[in-house]
Design a protein that fits this description.
This is EAL domain-containing protein. The protein contains eleven helices and nine strands. It has 288 residues and is α/β, with parallel strands linked by helices. The protein is globular, with a radius of gyration of 22 Å. The N and C termini lie far apart (75 Å). It binds ligand C2E and magnesium ion (3 copies).
């Protein structure tokens, strides 16, 4: 009873202490996770899964997107967690270049297996604030004898995109080299229209949130339709991400959306599984 009384009397302080120790453990968890992430990048144990992009009209495969994966003590850490950690700790460019190298290896492996498709890599805005990323990326492509037109860059619009005057020329020079550049999660970020008008992008990826509400919400359908029009106006590739149901795919097809990606077609998978998946898929739908 005495203890309980103390607890009640000191509730505020206790809550504060609890908060403080929680915070402390968060900080040390972050520090531990960060040092593990640094190790994983150093040991190149970050790996990729790839997810196909599909032409919604012909059903053919148009390419893949590579997604970074990290396993720590047999558990997967969600990309949203470790990408943010990498972005806020200055590790992101190393991580993204490691992913680029794994993608170069994947393209080689797939080409040998007779299934050659472009693969997209995700780049974070900090990558594009200096020349290093671009130079090293082209070194990797050189080393693996990969044509830049087999690589696509997906950039998420973040606050860092406000440094537009720095990023846009980088993107433009990559486009000149033959790479494609899409604005990821399009419709949710910053400065999207400036990018389009300055021709620092060749494509738009309609954010998953609009696709998921597509068949239920008229407003979301209007947003999707607007992005599709925007794409046609500016002659951009448009792809819908996060397609999960046949109804969503059907609606997008009716709206003349050229391509799509999502669990409906395939989940992200290992490169070996993707090779098998492509062979099976191409038996059913002709290669485009
Ligand atoms: P993103 O680039 O927009 O990638 C799409 C995310 O949606 C991926 O999540 C993918 O697994 C997931 N997804 C695909 N189809 C569906 C679907 O039908 N339904 C649902 N609910 N989700 C679907 P993931 O792999 O967890 O990656 C999350 C984010 O982390 C990515 O979003 C990207 O912004 C970032 N990311 C992943 N890999 C890298 C990387 O190598 N470098 C950088 N800078 N960012 C990365
Ligand atoms: Mg992406
Ligand atoms: Mg996206
Ligand atoms: Mg995203």
């Amino acid at each position: 009873l005495a203890e309980g009384t103390v607890l009640i009397a000191n509730r505020q302080k206790l809550n504060y202490l609890r908060f403080e120790s929680h915070m402390e453990s968060d900080i040390s968890t972050r520090a531990k996770l960060l040092s593990e992430l640094r190790n994983a990048i150093h040991q190149q144990s970050i790996f990729i899964e790839i997810q196909p992009k599909i032409n919604l009209h012909s059903g053919s495969i148009t390419g893949f997107e590579a997604l970074a994966r990290w396993e720590l003590n047999n558990e997967r850490i969600p990309p949203d967690t470790f990408i943010l950690l990498a972005e806020t700790s200055g590790l992101i460019t190393k991580l993204d270049l490691l992913v680029a190298e794994k993608v170069a290896q994947a393209i080689q492996k797939m080409t040998k297996a007779g299934v050659s498709y472009p693969i997209a890599i995700n780049a974070s805005a900090p990558d594009l604030l200096h020349n290093d990323y671009r130079h090293k990326l082209f070194e990797i492509l050189d080393e693996y004898h990969i044509n830049p037109n087999q690589i696509e860059l997906e950039i998420t619009e973040t606050k860092a995109m406000r440094d537009y005057h720095v990023i846009a020329p980088q993107l433009r020079s990559m486009i000149e080299m033959g790479m494609k550049v899409s604005l990821d999660d399009f419709g949710t970020g910053y400065s999207s229209l400036a990018y389009i008008t300055d021709l620092a992008a060749t494509g738009l990826k309609i954010d998953r949130s609009f696709i998921q509400k597509l068949t239920q919400s008229e407003a979301d359908e209007k947003v999707v339709d607007m992005i599709l029009h925007l794409g046609r106006f500016f002659d951009l590739d448009v792809i819908a991400e996060g397609i999960e149901t046949p109804e969503q795919a059907e609606r997008l097809k009716q709206m003349n959306c050229p391509s799509g990606q999502g669990y409906l077609f395939a989940r992200p998978m290992s490169v070996d599984s993707a090779i098998q998946w492509v062979k099976l898929h191409n038996k059913q739908a002709p290669k485009g």
